[in-house]
Design goal:
It is built from nine helices and seven strands. By secondary structure, it is an alpha/beta fold. Strands 1, 2, 3, 6 and 7 form a five-stranded parallel sheet that branches. A two-stranded antiparallel sheet has the order 4-5.
Length: about 260
């Protein structure tokens, strides 16, 4: 017996996908080169994107071991992992997702974050996913919570529940990117709170970018206060000011296509 829905879907893809591609062609999420359907990065961007070398980094703060911050800070989270540095190609592509409503970019970054989790946190059996909530004003302006979307994509792939109503963001405080490292830890204290207990859970905490670790540390502190057994963090990018980008990444703005 023929299943009509699948047949209709096949016919639709056969006749309308080419038309869709001609009107809305698939492009590299960084440089804008035209790609085949289903691809995210062109060969050059995929080759030069700033991936983090897991062999060289600290398992707790996420930075390369020679620039480890653990001797300066006692973090409440057990560790941080991320697929990319906050630089060059990865930074350009992620900020298009974060600042412009290009929600489909989340699929790529979430999939890369999941690969990193499976590779580096494979021994941890998580109970749930939480995420650092974006300011309500920002969500209203952009129309979406970028960290929340990543968290739900990751939760769906890992078959874990996403706890949207655990961490709450309070009003007040200066913007983190305007402050020094020491000021960030002070500024973020008390900005987040907990709305329910999560006793005994191992939590995977999702955020967009790790810079000093202040925000993740405060949210982890709140989760532990709420009863979490442990908190591990995953971000899309980690900022390392000493990381040197490639010549390709330096010159990519001269070849970029509107995408």
């Amino acid at each position: 017996m023929i299943k009509i829905p699948k047949l209709l879907k096949k016919l639709f893809n056969t006749f309308f996908d080419p038309a869709k591609q001609s009107i809305y062609p698939n492009k590299c999420i960084c440089c804008g080169r035209f790609l085949n359907e289903g691809e995210n990065l062109c060969e050059l961007c995929a080759h030069w994107i700033e991936r983090i070398n897991r062999q060289k980094r600290c398992l707790v703060c996420g930075l390369e071991k020679q620039r480890c911050r653990c001797k300066y800070n006692a973090y409440h989270f057990a560790g941080v992992v991320a697929p990319f540095y906050n630089a060059g190609i990865a930074k350009r592509a992620f900020y298009k997702y974060k600042l412009i409503p290009k929600k489909h970019y989340a699929l790529y970054f979430a999939s890369e974050m999941v690969k990193t989790i499976k590779s580096e946190l494979a021994d941890i059996k998580f109970d749930a996913v939480c995420y650092v909530p974006t300011a309500i004003k920002t969500v209203r302006y952009k129309g979406f919570d970028h960290a929340g979307i990543l968290a739900h994509k990751i939760g769906e792939t890992l078959n874990l529940p996403v706890l949207d109503d655990v961490i709450i963001r309070k009003k007040g405080g200066k913007k983190q990117h305007t402050l020094s490292s020491k000021e960030r830890f002070k500024n973020v204290r008390g900005r987040y709170g907990i709305d329910k207990r999560i006793s005994g859970m191992k939590i995977l905490l999702v955020d967009d970018i790790l810079t000093t670790g202040a925000t993740l540390d405060e949210c982890s502190r709140q989760l532990l206060f709420a009863g979490a057994q442990s908190v591990y963090c995953v971000t899309a990018l980690i900022t390392d000011n000493d990381y040197k980008i490639s010549d390709y990444a330096k010159n990519i703005e001269f070849m970029i296509v509107d995408c």
